[in-house]
Fold this protein.
Amino acid sequence: MLGVRDSERSVATLADLADEDLMHLVRKGDSAAFEVVYERHATAAFSLAYRMVASRNAAEDVVQDAFLSLWRSGARYERTRGSVRTWILGIVHNRAIDALRRSMRHDRRRVSDEGIEERFEAKELTDVDAARNEEAREVRDALRALPDEQCKVIELAYFGGFSQSEIATMLDTPIGTVKGRMRLGLEKMRGHLSGAAEGWT
Amino acid sequence: MNACERVTDAGPWVLGALDEQETARYEEHLRHCAACRAEVTALRTVVDALPLATEQVTPAAALKNRIMNEVETEAQLLRAAGPDADRVHRRAAAPRRRRRRRPPFSVRPLAAAGLAAAILAVGVIGGVLLGNGSSSQTRTVQAQVTVPGASAVVWVRDGHARLEVRGMRNPPSGRVYQVWVKRGSRAPEPTDALFTVRDGHGSVDVPGSVKGVDQIMVTSEPPGGSAAPTSKPVIAAAV
């Protein structure tokens, strides 16, 4: 594949390929295939990073870091571990947590009880396709349907990058209770999503 | 419903909310506990969906340009390195061949005058012949470099080559640069030429004769070097 020049293949052909097949080409150094993967997942990746680090510049750094690592070590993607999208978002999530731990340790407390939403003023909606909007709506609904205290511990942990002991201190709640809320909340979301989840991975 | 009491760690674990030690302990536990594994698998589907709950924000076009610039440069190097370069991952995974370890070549400050005329041209492999007044000739080859702002030149004289870099950053922590030679379509051959840079400058002699060598490449490798490249080339020169 290395010998295949980008120009010899139309982008339309690549755009028809599944993510998994594109990753096969990316592993071989195919930059055009990488570009298609980027186009498909950049918005989801950036949205997650922005939600977590709350600054465009920092989110761009996270996304750049994550996609370049994907380009340089695409070999580590394994189909068995789930979809390419899940894998990419997992890398973004890890990098964003690293970024949070590096730069925001000193003022992490400030997000405590204010509700995470207030930190994020992202309002530039894009036209992601209808199916994805539907999935997104399901997930948001599932999260909103949770009792506040369950929703909060999940958001603080996943989007805020806080550990369970930090959350326990922050909310002045025993750690066992925090654990319980996390698990209960996730279980409830799973029930809520189980009908819709089939198409995702 | 679930027999294991440690299942209470499943939620924090999938959310990444356990600290390092707790994570290690729970992961060890997961290896032996089917009940916890089942719980973690179930909860992970929810966590994988959480990114969808965020407002969708379009990244700036400039971000894509920055990323694609780096990717294109590295893809060009990879193509220049030839069809075997895509085998590095598999080759690297194979048990390493034992080879003699010699101390890394010393790094000498760059002769600045020698490079005064060498202007970085990323994306271009070019060679020029320079007469030097004696019977033998020194040939300089401008190398492709993936590191922005860095340049590399290979000097070839009497079948021997010397690589000089400037504006180069050091390899990732704990790694060294290793020089490889490539003949035709064969796999890159390791050399014992290992180097790091000081103040962006470094130079190294390519061991042996470069007669019949088509490409000189540089990758970053673990200390002592590798028998097969474990990373994409950062420098490639067609000699």
In short: Residues 1-8, 108-128 of chain A have pLDDT under 50 and may be disordered. The longest helix of chain A spans residues 31-53. Chain A touches chain B through 77 residues (CB under 8 Å).
